[in-house]
Amino acid sequence: MEKAAVLGVGLIGGSLALGLKERGNVEVCGYDGSSQTLRLAESSGVIHYGCHKVADAVKDADYIFLALPVGATLPLLEELAAMDLKPGCILSDVGSTKGRVMELAASLPRISRNFIGGHPMAGSHQSGVKAARSLLFENAYYVLTPPQNGSMSQVQRLSRLLSKATRAKLVIMDPDHHDRVVGAISHLPHILAAALVNQVEGYNRSNEWFLRLAAGGFRDLTRIAASDPVMWRDVLMSNREALLELMGDWIREMDLIHQALKAGDSRKIESFFCKAKASREKLPDRKQGVIAPVFECYVDVPDHPGEIGKVASLLGEWNISISNIGVIESREDGAGVLRLVFQGEKDHQKAKRVLRSNGLTVIDLNEQEKGGENTK
């Protein structure tokens, strides 16, 4: 049996380790800087066994996966390049940017031909090894960025392993092209969401109604602004060149609509929204992507004592787990007064059926967007 070392057993590393363990037919050794995380990964069966030192984890490994934040991946790669790894050992990472890590790997002769960049484009609103799932990447795109002087047989070997272990759709891509694409569909949206929240927070200092009325669409649009600041600092720094270009494009786009609004040009304004609507409708529905989906719905219930408890009890009777629950004071977008968030699509769909069969009005904004089923 071959051996795979997973360095970092959080959500992504743990999910990869589970897939490798269950379907990859490899022995999985884990390493993590947190002893508690490592113990949990062992006790919950995420890995076969754990090591407290990197050197022990990678000894005799046929595959090494660096499942760490971008900022921690680079120094660890240099550390690995100084070790006597097993001949033919394939190294890969799971970072959301590929340019800097591929550039560094190319400068390290001992691993340059065997390092294949990787990016499984899926995630979750949860974090940590407790949230790890062996099928987290199923049907998601998994991008590989091989080195220019790399071995095609090594790429094929890694692809076969990951295809079995993750059930993802493997894609080969140039590192710079990857960084530009992901910068536009993931990194730039995180910047815009954070900027919008900061802007509204600034207004709120002189008038508390800005955040008090911020519900519905504003919450949905800015949800990703709640992501880990340190992680996103490192992501932006590692994809700096692509993002500077993308942000320049965004500023020009905003200037066009700004000028149209300033001139009172209703035609240009309507064209702006028509173009966006047509493009938005082309997006694949509920596919795995770099921005984790949220499985939520709204329930129209009277804002009276005990009503929330009734809904929660009803779902509990059907063994439906609620990830989050909240009362919406500002009911824009036609959403109900009670917001329910679920951990997965299965609970989400089951909850809607149960609630509707008990006479409750349930609103799913995704259904409204595509003219789907009735709310009753």
Question: Can you describe what's shown?
Answer:
By secondary structure, this protein is α/β, with parallel strands linked by helices. It has three domains: 3-173, NAD(P)-binding Rossmann-like Domain (Rossmann fold), CATH 3.40.50.720; 178-282, 6-phosphogluconate dehydrogenase C-terminal like domain (6-phosphogluconate dehydrogenase C-terminal fold), CATH 1.10.3660; 295-369, VC0802-like, CATH 3.30.2130.10. It has helices spanning 11-23, 35-43, 54-58, 70-81, 99-106, 152-166, 175-204, 209-212, 217-222, 229-238, 240-263, 266-280, 307-317, 345-357, 365-369, and strands spanning 2-7, 26-31, 49-51, 63-66, 90-93, 115-120, 141-145, 169-172, 295-300, 322-327, 338-342, 361-363. Helix 5 (99-106) links the parallel strand 5 and strand 6. The chain is globular and about 65 Å long. The termini are far apart. The model is unreliable at 331-336 and 372-376 (pLDDT under 50).
Instruction: Give the tally of structural domains.
Output: 3
**Strand arrangement, major sheet:** 3-2-1-4-5-6-7-8
Mean pLDDT rating = 89
Flag low-confidence runs: 331-336, 372-376
**Count of separate DSSP helical elements:** 15
Question: Strand content of the residues, in percent?
Answer: 15-25%
Q: What is the fold named in CATH at topology level of the largest domain?
A: Rossmann fold
Query: Mind summarizing the main beta sheet?
Result: 8 strands, mixed
Number of strands: 12
In the CATH hierarchy, the architecture of the largest domain is 3-Layer(aba) Sandwich
CATH superfamily of the largest domain: NAD(P)-binding Rossmann-like Domain
> What is the SS-derived class?
alpha/beta
Share in helix: 40-55%
How far apart lie the N and C ends?
Answer: 54 Å
Keywords: Amino-acid biosynthesis, Aromatic amino acid biosynthesis, NAD, Oxidoreductase, Tyrosine biosynthesis
Pfam family, one: PDH_N
EC number: 1.3.1.12
Organism: Kroppenstedtia pulmonis
